[in-house]
Amino acid sequence: MLRTIGMIGGSLALYQAMEVLGHAKETQFAGPPKLSGAPAGASVLVLGAGLAGMLAAFELRKAGYKVQILEYNNRPGGRNWSLYGGDTYPQRGGETQKVGVAPGNYLNPGPWRIPYPHRTLLHYCKAVGVALEPFIQLNHQALVHNSKAFGGKPMPYRDLSADFEGNVAELLGKAIDNRGLDSQFSAEDQDKLKEALRTWGLLDKDMRYVKGNRSSRRRGFERPSGGGVDGSPIPSDPLPFKDVLDSGVWAVISQHMSIDHQTTMFQPVGGMGMIGKAFGKQVEGLVTFNAKVTKISQAGGAVTATYTDTATGAVKEAKADYCVCTSPLGILGQSALDASGGILAASAAVPYSNSVKVGLEMKPRFWEEENAIYGGISFTDRPISMISYPSGGMHSDGPGVILGAYTFGAASYKFAGMSPDERVRTVLEMGSVFHPGRYKEQFTAGASVAWSRVPYTLGCCAQWNEETREEHYQTLVAVDDRIVLAGEHASYIGCWMEGALLSSLDAVTRLHKRALEA
To answer: What is the structure's pLDDT at 398?
Structure first.
């Protein structure tokens, strides 16, 4: 049935049907956990001051536990992090970047947007005082570039999406007229579907997608409406359907349909790192920074973590009754972990992806002034994958930071092997296809982060597949004597902050139950 819906109505209809049938849902959040009555004197050691770790500490302390956090970095937030002008960033391998963007500008190396269904994150942003503003995901005026279509010229998403949907609507209308859907719909339902297609695809009275005022209201006019003598608009010519197909625009359309990428989306005012900073204030005084954990023991009815103070080289220990471990699995695998064989096997079975982000500060906001692009994402088949225009500070005179590359897969490892300066040069060259004569010429400063070379994660996020989930997931998230793991890797919303937070809430709820039953 779902296959038939997809063939008839396209991916949006398919997704809506999946949602009705329960196959696509928002995240599970029913409010903060109701923890209380911690055993007298009970203590918990939290490994990691990312969002999962700080939320665990925040909720456990409210329940009455004594809490201590060990954090590898010298700041809270983990992968929730922003780079600002004046910051220095040493990547694994030796190079240190000094960020030179203007005051108020920033690059988000990790998470950069918050989907509206991520209720847990939105709840805690409000609870800890993080101001949010809209993040523009879909911008019809942004560009789509495919080197094999339109002679390599980027085309407005607006034009491509309108022409793709209009042509699909026309083809489906022909299928109805040719009795191609008699087995699927009654005559009355076919008439309803034809009227829906005429409206959705902006078809004319003869069910054709053609040049005219109807199609131009979506794809734009050759001459826009004006005032006075020459105020009447001139309709634009639809693009050849073959060229539209060659552009691959449907992949861009489908990305915006995903529940994690639908309107409305948010970002913190002043950078994504504002969330980590705000959570950090809630657990102030509980965190030991510069603590590289090397051993975790459950001997003697307690949890003992051995760690090295990276600032002094001193080796120390921290001890508690229980432990919430939010370390990324690749980092956890470098520690001597006293846990069941199942936990060890599970944590070793999940690889991490790589990603590289490159931020480019431009002196004037020429994409707004010359192209009327305010926020949103332009896509390309070049290795940089996309560029994202800033959603903050729009329509201002000051400089703005474009996300000049967001790479995954093989391209990300190629970029990771470059020096920071070489990454910036390469990204400027590739991104110039969107704004020739302006992109390289108006560049002022850049910064980049390759997650495979970030020492406290050694990767971007966990990459489960169906086989590893079936074999290892429940073992990974189970309470193992006195230790429970949490983080985006311990969720079905991997690579998102929401997954880290929901995992943390689930972990502390089960750990609290374990403590009460002891």
So the answer is: 86
Question: Which helix H or strand E contains 448, and what residues bound it?
Answer: strand 443-450
Q: What burial letters (b/e) apply to 444-459, b meaning 16+ CB within 10 Å?
A: ebbbbbbbbbbebbbb
Going 19 to 24 to 30 to 31, the CA torsion angle's sign is negative
Query: Which pLDDT score, from 0 to 100, does residue 2 have?
Result: 42
For the residues 127-141, what does the mean pLDDT come to? 97
Q: Are 107 and 114 in contact (CB under 8 A)?
A: no
How far is residue 468's CA from residue 461's CA, in Å, rounded to a whole number?
15
Which of these, 247, 233, 255, 217, lies nearest to 209 by C-alpha position?
217
Cα–Cα dist 183/185, whole Å: 6
On the CB side of 429, CA atoms within 13 Å amount to 7
Closest-CA residue to 267 (of 419, 69, 133): 133
Q: Within 13 Å of residue 49, how many CA atoms lie on the same side as its CB?
A: 31
- Tell me if 150 sits within 8 A of 172, measured CB to CB: no
Tell me the helices (H) and strands (E) count for the chain, helix number first: 17, 23
For residues 411 and 427, what is the distance between their CA atoms, to the nearest angstrom? 12
pLDDT (tens digit per residue) in 461-517: 999 999 999 999 999 999 999 999 999 999 999 999 999 999 999 999 999 999 999
> What distance lies between CA 316 and its chain's CA centroid?
36
Residue 376 has pLDDT above 70, yes or no: yes
Question: Cβ atoms within 10 A of the Cβ of 489, count?
Answer: 29
CB contact at 8 A, 393 and 381: no
Tell me the C-alpha distance between 244 and 25, whole Å. Answer: 31
Tokens of 472: 């290892």
DSSP secondary structure letters along 249-263: HHHHHHHHHSTTTSS
Contact 35, 62 (CB under 8 A): yes
**The total number of residues written for the chain in this structure:** 518
Give CA–CA dist 232/454, Å, rounded.
Answer: 57
Q: What is the mean pLDDT of residues 238-257?
A: 94
Q: Rounded distance, CA 404 to CA 358, Å?
A: 5
Residue pair 294/335 in contact (Cβ under 8 Å)? The answer is yes
| pLDDT at 183 > cutoff 80 | no
Q: Which two tokens stand for residue 24?
A: 């696509």
Alpha carbon separation from 448 to 109, 263, 286, 329, 403 (Å, rounded):
7, 27, 31, 24, 10
| Residue in 241, 165, 154 with CA at minimum distance from that of residue 431 | 154
Q: Dihedral sign for Cα 421, 426, 431, 432, please.
A: positive
pLDDT for 233-242, tens place per residue? 999 999 999 9
Using the structure block, give the residue that is written with the tokens 């998403």.
157
The residues, any chain, with a CB within 8 Å of residue 513's CB and separated by 6 or more, are none
